[in-house]
Known about the structure:
100 residues, Arc Repressor Mutant, subunit A
Amino acid sequence: MSKKRESKRVASPHWTFLTNHSHVLICLARDGNSVLRDVADQVGITERAVQRIVSDLEESGYIKRRKDGRRNTYRLNLSKPLRHPVEQNCTIEALVSMIK
């Protein structure tokens, strides 16, 4: 990893309240035209990890990926409920609006 990319990474605390899946989802909610490399830098994980998370989110119906030339754009399914039983009364829209 280049020094330039390394310097962009934010020092991660020992633990966080939200998962990397939710962090990626929030980044895509802020900018559906984001390049996954930029999302990786914001979240503090590898680009490959972001690709796996995006695939998970897409397979589960939380996001839709659309090819736009050589780039992808992402749109969230805001009405979809969160997955965990403790959170399933909350939608993606509620989560994103709280943090975005």
